[in-house]
Amino acid sequence: MLVGKKPVMSYVLAVVTQFGAGATEVVLKARGRAIGKAVDIAEVARRRFLPGVQVKNISIGTEQVQTREGETSNVSSIEITLGK
Question: Residue 2: inside a domain, yes or no?
Fold first, then answer.
C-alpha cells in the first residue's frame, strides 16, 4: 500500500480491512515527507486495532525521481511489513 496525502486513519482503516479479509502481511511504502505518516499508520494499527500484528521488516533506501524540470532528485523511501 503506497502512503500519500490522505489522513492517517484512512490508511489505518485500509490496513485493518486487509487483515480482516484474511491477509497475513501488509506492506506500507512511502517516500519523502510521507515516511513519518507511514510509521504513524503502522503504530496506530498495531497498538489500537490489531494487537496481534507485529512489524516483520523495515527497509529504507533512496530512489531517484524525475522533477518537473527534467532533472533527477534523490528521495528517501521506506517499506514497513506488518504481519501476524
Answer: no
Full residue range of the structural domain in which residue 29 is found: 8-83
Q: Count the residues in the chain.
A: 84
CATH code of the domain containing 63: 3.30.110.20
What averages of pLDDT result for each successive group of 10 residues across the chain (84 residues)?
A: 96 96 96 96 95 95 90 95 95
Element (H, E) at 18: helix 8-20
pTM: 0.90
Report the DSSP beta bridge partners of residue 30: 78
